Amino acid sequence: MEAIEAKDYQVVFGTDGYTNLNAILKEKNYSILFILVDSNTHEHCLAPFLQNVVTQTTIEIIEIDPGEEFKNLETCEGVWNVLSELNADRKSALINLGGGVVTDLGGFVACCFKRGIDFINIPTTLLSMVDASVGGKTGVDLGPLKNQIGIISNPELVLVDTHFLGTLSIEELRSGYAEMLKHGIISSEAYWNTVKEASYSDFESLGDLIRQSIAIKNEVVLEDPFEQNRRKSLNYGHTLGHAIESYFMESDQKQRLLHGEAIAIGMILANYLSTQLCDLEEVVCNEVSLAIMSFYQVVQFDDKDIEQIITLLKYDKKNSHGKVLFVLLNNIGEVVLNQEVSNELIYKAFEYYKNLNKN
């Protein structure tokens, strides 16, 4: 599969990708290679990955706990301490083998250690392949608040090996698919029509769709690397989606939602808001929303839940001058940025989501 040219690095795929990886390791001649894994990728992904790595450089493995709740500065401190104890220097490199938590946190760890060492991302989940693989966003959460601490810095290489998808649960695959659905909504009706009819469990066809999703995101990032304008479109569904994800993570009474499950709800809410504030036709809103809903379980919200979710909106990274700004739509592939939304409309959007469940 043909490589994708990102900013100062490539996204490479499969067998050819390992050839690229080994060439970089030989060229860079790193002093030590550190591989960051969580306990899941240590068990399921590390051995097959190492079978494809050819290097004479010493390799050290660093393991962290799995899950979004460990994507924090405390985990970073632990990794920095291990790097120091194992004599990492500025000519060392960190290979991040895992999902979005590992690649986001690992990239941030690498950027800060000794003011920056090289890092390479090997995404092992569908979400990290289509979302974290391009764009250079690294970082960690601040309590339940998503990605509040971080920096934009590009890896030396991203290698996408779809064989790792076989290690995932259906729930994790479904979570990652939400980002692919989003890429369809914000990019083109053609890709939307393809991805909404596809199956996230059909790995044979999924490989081509993954590459298309990465290419869509890469085109946006190349135009606007620091999210001043067009790159904000990639946050479609994420303003309320991240708030919902944070609320369910923080609540003792709620079952946690995976990232894609929360973003799917956020996109449906954004669809409704787009009919009220932009030119999205109701028939298109309903068609897109029902298609999204066909992939995900229904979640119940009461007024107290919604009130707390709205409170969390003040932490959204797109906010400016005290205003919460949404990404909305005029049509599939026609995004409208920096839209203010009243709390009253947000309540109505949740009512739309609730009533859509009855159809």
From TrEMBL:
Catalyzes the conversion of 3-deoxy-D-arabino-heptulosonate 7-phosphate (DAHP) to dehydroquinate (DHQ). SUPFAM superfamilies: Dehydroquinate synthase-like. Its EC number is 4.2.3.4. GO terms for biological process: aromatic amino acid family biosynthetic process; chorismate biosynthetic process. GO terms for cellular component: cytoplasm. Pfam families: DHQ_synthase (PF01761), DHQS_C (PF24621). The lineage of its organism: Bacteria, Pseudomonadati, Bacteroidota, Flavobacteriia, Flavobacteriales. This is 3-dehydroquinate synthase. InterPro entries: Dehydroquinate_synthase, DHQ_synth_AroB, DHQ_synth_fam, DHQS/DOIS_N, DHQS_C. Residues 176-319 form the 3-dehydroquinate synthase C-terminal domain.
